[in-house]
TrEMBL record:
GO biological process: apoptotic process; phagocytosis
Function, in words: Involved in cytoskeletal rearrangements required for phagocytosis of apoptotic cells and cell motility. Acts in association with DOCK1 and CRK. Was initially proposed to be required in complex with DOCK1 to activate Rac Rho small GTPases. May enhance the guanine nucleotide exchange factor (GEF) activity of DOCK1.
Domain ELMO: 319-492
Matching PROSITE patterns: ELMO (PS51335)
UniProt-listed Pfam families: ELMO_ARM, ELMO_CED12, PH_12
The keyword Repeat is assigned to this record: no
GO terms for MF: SH3 domain binding
Gene Ontology terms: cellular component: cytoplasm; membrane
Keywords, in A-Z order: Apoptosis, Cytoplasm, Membrane, Phagocytosis, Phosphoprotein, SH3-binding
Main localization, broad class: cytoplasm
Cellular location(s): Cytoplasm; Membrane
Gene source species: Daubentonia madagascariensis
Protein name (Swiss-Prot/TrEMBL): Engulfment and cell motility protein 1 isoform 1
């Protein structure tokens, strides 16, 4: 007879004693279990003790998390969180430097546990740490020269403990003094500072800016872009990542009227070229966190265009009308203005109307009306003027080429520019907030100070070229725009490293090539509708689905590293989950860093039997997506979230690194539960494999005899003189 579900068999350690094997009744109060353990080792005052995991996490067992204890778990009897917090609170104030250093090291480690953190914070521990940072550095200033390593370690552990404690969200960021902010900022502003101190200081500043409007203003007064730039010119990618994160936070929280000013300062300090040289083109791979921060910076930079994109043109504004006059002047180099008489005024209006028609505006009489739709608003006119001034020859050629064609084949430059600007804004998602987990940055946008305008200039020339290749008329306008969008999207997916490379990718994606690609894809995805083919597909489908199922389960056996996301800030904290080879148990556990390759089962302490899984839920149905916090609002994170529900009110929560891994895991878990695999990836794989299998079976093999046995291996040649020795 199997043991009751509420009984868990564990091992419990106590320093200096043999470990005990014990059965824990989960219905009993935790205090009663601890008393029973203490009585077994004749330890008095059981209220001063607690149980914690004996693995690297050392997390305390509480009434809230006790259901996570599984059969075979190794626990440790230790001092209670309250006692531990009290002792550490006293130890970190020791007059002995060595004792103080050791205490701060322990505090930095224990602060990751929310139970201990709550107790330490209740003792006003955060205030003590901030006072140590504010005043302690001066106190040990004299000792710094002779005890520099000790001083650096002490400050590093203090800041680490502070970051870990604040990450639990127990204390508001608004409570910190200007003196503390100034001190943290001073560590960032120093040219020579310990790497670990600099990293934690940057992390604290980022969190301050993101979590408090008042602190944003104070941090913005203490930190300048010029002081952050040198950290990007170093070789430590982690420091570079945190530095860009601080810049992004300042950018994100800046008032609308300050953002353009910040962008101008970034341009003056040549931030873009520094990132291009020292980060993107550095001789090392860009990790996921850095890719995310570059993506955020790219999004925030393009979002500066939103104001112009949503601004309608005022037909009465002379300055705005002058831009249209300038476009006309550059294109046609107007002759000297006729005298201001009644007759010549009529001639002028007639000439303007004719020229505006050649420029491709919809409203020939008053082209300002073409820019009253938002988006793209005034941004389209800005792009047109930039193209006319900075690529004048190409601009004049396009306008004159189309003005000399028959009306039905002319490519309207004005209308094309407006629609193209709108399309490019949609592709780059101008005006949308950056995704929490996305790292889709494009290196080419970091190669030019006016990258969006240059992007437009390349695409408008592409549009004109595609129009000619399609021999399009005005009725084909939307078809041309669809082809151009496909050309741009396909070129972007190759992640060109420069605008020139992007241009050359587009050269290879002519209209003819797009037609070939479309035809090829159509053939690959073609559904044969004849009855025999449908019957064949129906017969083959179970076999293909079983193949997909095995692939999914094999991927779960390999396992995946998941990032722990926090609503307050992104963290480099990871955990790994994998399925046992017999498909009966999920092994999982925390990791110190992102692994290289697979993580062995024995290094993952936690287990979840597949038989205990009740359901798999996704998106908004996940418990961790129902909690309060910024992640709840993020659509992208919702699409990557899934949870395993087991036992009573227990769950294992996931946020997949990308959509592909999300599909793999949800498919695999559903397959384990005997449910259908419903992901987009499964549908695509099924379509591809079915199509391939049917085409193989329909190959024309008439008069081709397929042997029953493989052909014999020929005898070795008598000599090898025919071999050419290239040496």
């Amino acid at each position: 007879m199997p043991p009751p579900a509420d009984i868990v068999k564990v091992a419990i350690e106590w320093p200096g004693a043999y470990p005990k094997l014990m059965e824990i009744d989960q219905k009993k109060p935790l205090s009663a279990i601890i008393k029973e353990v203490c009585d077994g080792w004749s330890l008095a005052n059981h209220e001063y003790f607690a149980l914690q995991h004996a693995d690297s996490s050392n997390f305390y067992i509480t009434e809230k998390n006790r259901n996570e204890i599984k059969n075979g778990t190794i626990l440790r009897l230790t001092t209670s969180p309250a006692q531990n917090a009290q002792q550490l609170h006293e130890r970190i104030q020791s007059s002995s430097m060595d004792a103080k250093l050791e205490a701060l090291k322990d505090l930095a480690s224990l602060s990751r546990d929310v139970t201990f953190a709550q107790e330490f914070i209740n003792l006003d521990g955060i205030s003590l740490l901030t006072q140590m940072v504010e005043s302690g550095t001066e106190r040990y200033q004299k000792l710094q020269k002779i005890m520099k390593p000790c001083f650096g370690d002490m400050l590093s552990f203090t800041l680490t403990a502070f970051v870990e404690l604040m990450d639990h969200g127990i204390v508001s960021w608004d409570t910190f003094s200007v003196a503390f902010i100034k001190k943290i900022a001073s560590f960032v502003n120093k040219s020579a500072i310990d790497i670990s101190i600099l990293q934690r200081s940057l992390a604290i500043l980022e969190s301050m800016v993101l979590n408090s409007h008042d602190l944003y203003q104070k941090v913005a007064q203490e930190i300048t872009i010029g002081q952050l730039i040198p950290h990007l010119q170093g070789s430590d990618q982690e420091i570079q990542t945190y530095t860009i994160a601080v810049i992004n936070a300042l950018f994100l929280k800046a008032p609308d009227e300050r953002r353009q000013e910040m962008a101008n300062i970034l341009a003056q300090k040549q931030l873009r070229s520094i990132i291009l040289t020292h980060v993107i083109r550095a001789q090392r791979a860009i990790n996921n966190e850095m890719a995310h921060q570059l993506y955020v910076l790219q999004v925030l930079t393009f979002n500066l265009l939103e104001d112009r994109m949503m601004t309608k043109m005022d037909p009465q504004d002379q300055a705005q009308r002058d831009i249209i006059f300038e476009l006309r002047r550059i294109a046609f180099d107007a002759e000297s203005e006729p005298n201001n008489s009644s007759g010549s005024m009529e001639k002028r209006k007639s000439m303007y109307t004719r020229d505006y028609k050649k420029l491709g505006f919809i409203n020939h009489v008053n082209p300002a009306m073409d820019f009253t739709q938002t988006p793209p608003g005034m941004l389209a006119l800005d792009n047109m003027l930039y193209f006319a001034k900075h690529h004048q020859d190409a601009y004049i050629r396009i306008v004159l080429e189309n003005s000399s064609r028959e009306d039905k084949h002319e490519c309207p430059f004005g209308r094309s520019s407006i629609e193209l600007t709108k399309m490019l804004c949609e592709i780059l998602k101008v005006g949308e907030l950056p995704g929490e987990t996305c790292n889709d940055f494009h290196p080419m946008f970091f190669t030019h100070d006016r990258s969006f305008e240059e992007f437009f200039c390349i695409c408008i020339q592409l549009l004109n070229k595609t129009w000619k290749e399609m021999r399009a008329t005005s009725e084909d306008f939307n078809k041309v725009m669809q082809v151009v969008k496909e050309q741009v999207m396909r070129a972007l997916t190759t992640k060109p490293s420069s605008l020139d490379q992007f241009k050359s990718k587009l050269q290879n994606l002519s209209y003819t090539e797009i037609l070939k690609i479309r035809q090829s894809e159509r053939m690959n995805q073609e559904d044969f509708q004849s009855r025999p083919i449908l019957e064949l597909k129906e017969k083959i489908q179970p076999e293909i689905l079983e193949l997909i199922k095995q692939q999914r389960l094999n991927r779960l056996v390999e396992g995946t590293c998941f990032r722990k996301l926090n609503a307050r800030r992104r963290q480099d904290k990871f955990w790994y989950c994998r399925l046992s080879p017999n498909h009966k148990v999920l092994h999982y556990g925390d990791l110190e860093e992102s692994p290289q390759g697979e993580v062995p089962h024995d290094s993952l302490q936690d287990k979840l039997p597949v038989a205990d899984i009740k359901a798999v839920v996704t998106g908004k149905d996940c418990p961790h997506m129902k909690e309060k916090g910024a992640l709840k609002q993020n659509k992208e994170v919702l699409e990557l979230a899934f949870s395993i529900l087991y036992d009573s009110n227990c769950q294992l929560n996931f946020i997949a690194p990308d959509k592909h891994e999300y599909c793999i895991w949800t498919d695999g878990l559903n397959a384990l539960l005997g449910k259908d695999m419903m992901s987009d990836l499964t549908r695509n794989d099924l379509d591809t494999l079915l199509s391939m299998e049917i085409k193989l079976r329909l190959l024309d093999l008439e008069n081709i005899q397929i042997p029953d046995a493989p052909p014999p291996i020929p005898k070795e040649p008598s000599n090898y003189d025919f071999v050419y020795d290239c040496n």
